[in-house]
Recover the amino acids of this structure.
């Protein structure tokens, strides 16, 4: 039999838009022995996690819990549960992940309307509101922070318009939750999906979601108790039953409620990780955490600019936690990335679709978003660019970032 | 702000049909720092894991990889990808998880035919074969090991019949993989789904699957490259596109192939856990592992019988790794379970549907399946039963199990 070596992954400095480095406290949490899924100690941890998620999402919603899967499992769960086949769904697209929402909505059997914004900018809210008034959608689905372009879409006015027009607003906040403000209640977002492996700095594996009473009312119209658990007919749905069992939020909420109606087997170790990651976020405080992300973004931008590099996209819609940098003319972007990883142990990201080969994407998210990482990246990037024949004034990137750090004005 | 305590879960002896105790080597693997999803070190770990999964499933299939979710995510992924709306699907049901397959197939839009067997026994293969000949299904979906009743369904003849009748056979081997033989190729199973949190003794969170060329051929007829990644039209499907993006195996296999076409963000820490768990299985050897499970089952049964307890269900179809015990008349089964957990730190399982209140289910799976656990459970169960007024000849359960262990005849 072939021998497989002991696991011994290299230590990386991960400056991508996710997955990012994980706080050692979260890593330790995952190494604890497991509890059974209906052990009272475990269900208590589940309840605490729900409570903490309400804090994270800035909501008083009853429902806030993780879907067991990667971030897009949360997106699909919310969409397949809230979009009935034939529903009119409006999707404003301003980057790759808007296209993903389009794709998922189509697979849900929706009648999809899209409006598109040039990559690198976001929608003026009134444009989306006009589209809502003219298409009269049942559901609007939208990305908050687009990691493909490094932009953030203002949502407050769109939320209010959806409420007025009686559309449900689903928001993909995978890239923003825990890094920049996401105001579920204040912005009137009906369902929000977060991600673990970005600003929360927990390994990929769960997708925290929240939704309000308006969303729940729609779920309940599609509800069915599982065959093998129900006595009698089980279905009295006004709307077609959800096309997925795994992603049926009506069933998931019964599992997360005191009824604990058996569904999947909750991911014990990932729940430990999520709980510990949320503790870290709440101990730091949301506002302080958002400030921290802005502070390190400022240092990073100062450093990149001092090196003569240019940022991509509209400045006013820049997403704090993802900085897109134009690859200088004549430089092979992939060769730079691979030297950064191979020689310096630092990972930055390439890009998708129309931006491929044109920009690098640098993440400053969660635990990865710290002074020594930013300084390390700037120093290494300078060295690698010099090796690729790009003329950089030596040392200026790091010095400019140090200026920001020493000013200590947050 | 409310203070949340440090995580400190109690140490449990988990003798349920899952989730079960996790080997410390697997727990340690999860505490390693993460790698980026496209880091060459990480994709190498993905490839190794695929190789090990082929060994686990006893297959030379090209495709063997985990779906990122709990066990039922793997079941749903295989079903939604291989069952096109309108397909004829036969589901032989002999316990709760057969009903789950029925439910999922329905939600996939299938025309479902079920045959049912009394709980506590399995199907004579010829009965299923006759149903295949008469219903002429496109797909047959079946549970291998039914944890709700503790039975195991022989599959070899059914596999051959499906091949002859050109039906695809999907098998739920969540409870059996790594504990009792699952012969994917020899039994002609077209798609098999395993679970992590049972006989593999890895935390819940991934669902290893495998499927052969016949299954892949159907996937490819439903294939679509994701919006936002494709150039041009993207779809040229002969059959309707899969209703799920997250569970579309055609996309998942592109992500697991050398193309690494971006889909979800692979669960780093769970992959570390899966790889380490598979290493442990392959180091022990599949045959030795199956023998071990049979050996401890024998000791457990000897102990339970010596205590005057009665097993539930047909002896010849008993599933090695789950032992169902009739709750003696006049004993409150839930009170026994809760005293076992509260005083002794030992968890056993209750049961579903028609068996509720009638049986306990004891798991001997993976890392939980070891001598000191079996002896500890028998001693504790005796003490708890005495406390509940059930007359047990003192000490006999443990002595009977010790006899088996000391005989050391595997």
């Amino acid at each position: 039999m072939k021998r497989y070596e002991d696991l011994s992954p290299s230590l990386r400095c991960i400056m991508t838009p996710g997955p990012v480095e994980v706080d050692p406290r979260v890593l330790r949490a995952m190494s604890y022995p497991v509890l059974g899924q209906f052990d009272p100690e475990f269900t208590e941890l589940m309840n605490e996690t729900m409570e903490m998620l309400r804090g994270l999402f800035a909501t008083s919603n009853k429902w806030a819990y993780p879907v067991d899967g990667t971030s897009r499992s949360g997106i699909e769960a919310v969409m397949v549960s809230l979009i009935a086949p034939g529903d009119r769904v409006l999707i404003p697209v301003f980057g790759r992940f808007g296209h993903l929402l389009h794709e998922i909505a189509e697979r849900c059997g929706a009648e999809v309307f899209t409006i598109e914004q040039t990559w690198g900018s976001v929608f003026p809210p009134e444009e989306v509101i006009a589209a809502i008034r003219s298409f009269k959608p049942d559901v609007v689905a939208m990305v908050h922070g687009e990691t493909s372009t490094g932009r953030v879409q203002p949502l407050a006015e769109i939320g209010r318009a959806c409420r007025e027009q009686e559309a449900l607003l689903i928001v993909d906040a995978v890239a923003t939750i825990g890094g920049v403000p996401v105001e579920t209640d204040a912005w009137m977002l009906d369902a929000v999906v977060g991600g673990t492996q970005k600003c929360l700095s927990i390994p990929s594996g769960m997708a925290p979601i929240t939704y309000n009473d308006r969303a729940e009312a729609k779920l309940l119209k599609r509800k069915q108790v599982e065959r093998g658990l129900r006595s009698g007919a089980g279905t009295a749905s006004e709307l077609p039953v959800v096309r997925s069992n795994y992603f049926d939020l009506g069933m998931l909420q019964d599992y997360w409620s005191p009824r604990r109606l058996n569904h999947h087997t909750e991911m014990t170790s990932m729940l430990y990780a999520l709980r510990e990651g949320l503790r870290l976020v709440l101990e730091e405080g949301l506002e302080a955490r958002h400030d921290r992300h802005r502070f390190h973004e400022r240092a990073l931008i100062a450093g990149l600019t001092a090196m003569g590099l240019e940022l991509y996209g509209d400045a006013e819609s820049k997403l704090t936690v993802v900085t897109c940098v134009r690859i200088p003319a004549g430089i092979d972007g992939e060769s730079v990335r691979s030297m950064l990883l191979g020689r310096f142990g630092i990972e930055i990201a390439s890009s998708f679709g129309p931006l491929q080969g044109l920009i690098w994407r640098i993440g400053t998210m969660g635990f990865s978003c710290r002074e020594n990482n930013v300084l390390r990246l700037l120093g290494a990037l300078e060295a690698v660019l010099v090796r690729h024949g790009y003329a950089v004034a030596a040392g200026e990137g790091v010095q400019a970032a140090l200026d920001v750090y020493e000013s200590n004005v947050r």
Summary: Chain A has a mean pLDDT of 96. The two ends of chain A are 57 Å apart (CA to CA).
